[in-house]
Amino acid sequence: MNEKKVFVIGFPKTGTTSLQSALTTLGYKVKGEFGMKDPNISRKVYEMAFRFVEQYDAFEDNPWCVLYKELDEKYPGSKFILTLRPTEKWIKSVVDHFGIKTRSLLEWIYGVGYPKGNEDLYIARYERHNKEVLEYFKDRPDDLLAFRLSEGDGWEKLCQFLHKDIPPIEFPHENKGVNRARKRKRKKIRRVIKRSFVVFAVLVLPGLVLYWMRFSL
After folding, report:
1. Most buried of the four, 56, 165, 192, 216, by CB within 10 Å?
2. How confident is the model at residue 209 (pLDDT cuts 50, 70, 90)?
3. Cβ(108)–Cβ(63) under 8 Å?
4. What is the spatial distance between Cα 135 and Cα 164, in angstroms, rounded to a whole number?
5. Other residues' Cβ atoms within 10 Å of the Cβ of residue 146
């Protein structure tokens, strides 16, 4: 697309995946997260980000959200979308998703690589980011859209900002907690089925084969 770049700069778990689906529907080629487990991400992040910008139209998730000043400077005229969510709901979702497993990218952004047990640190970083973005763009209402999916923002607000026609479909709501729970349940069921099949193959199947060979001769 020969259009202005669109950067979704809200932190993950604020509706960024829904924005990715919406932007894709509008015809944008979207690039999501990168560098999550790269131990050298702090050194490589800008080089990698600028390379991806040349290949895609829109961008969301980490680390795009914390690169907005550099992206604004390098790609003037771009559109920025700050997805927002109540802090208490945001931190619960982040802890549920990331838990206690360390990620290099999270360590670079928050100072600690996992949120569980470090909720206050993560909340402070989240709230500071939102305030800094709003302050940075305070005199540029045409360049920043504050988007609150949890409060009902959808196609009308997004398409007006991007000067796009509203699609004749419902606005996407991805990664809802109930959907994640269902996915985990299905995954657990698949693991049980897989283990049951292995037990059958190892313990039961050889006996059936021997039984068949014994009485078929």
Report:
1. 56
2. low
3. yes
4. 26
5. 18
